[in-house]
Amino acid sequence: MNSEQELLDGAALTVYRLNGQFLTIGDGLSSPAGISVAWWQVMAAVQDQPQPVAGIARAMGVTRQSVQRIADLLVGKGMCEYRPNPAHKRAKLVAMTEEGEAAIRRIDPQHAAMAHRLAEALGPAEFAATVATLERLAATLDTIIADEDQL
């Protein structure tokens, strides 16, 4: 195995580990509000603006079907609602309800505390640089995947 392969493996294993760590933290933050971390992720995607299921899935890097299942559960629990989509008749928009916003507000103080702890441990500049590097890595992988789909 060459050093580039080792770097790819190291990046992938680190991201998998980070994913597990973020899920553990997310579960700890979201469970007192009565929601799962998966529900929280979908709700966060529509917190500022209603989105179609496919758009949420793209942003999260997961399948449309998994987001649809969660959106249906959130609508059933009254935390989100489906609204008409002026851009597409069949693809309704997922929007947050007052009940969903209240759940997110219950999470916010502990979320802010965790963000502060992480920023304090890394330092604000390194924290920002880390996020920028991860975003660049994700964008680069998107480009590579799209290029391979074109082949």
TrEMBL record:
Gene3D superfamilies: Winged helix-like DNA-binding domain superfamily/Winged helix DNA-binding domain (1.10.10.10). Keywords: DNA-binding. Residues 4-139 form the HTH marR-type domain. InterPro entries: HTH_MarR-typ, MarR/SlyA-like, WH-like_DNA-bd_sf, WH_DNA-bd_sf. Pfam families: MarR_2. One of its GO terms (biological process) is response to stress. The keyword Aminoacyl-tRNA synthetase does not apply. One of its GO terms (molecular function) is DNA-binding transcription factor activity. This is DNA-binding MarR family transcriptional regulator. The keyword DNA-binding applies. SUPFAM superfamilies: Winged helix' DNA-binding domain.
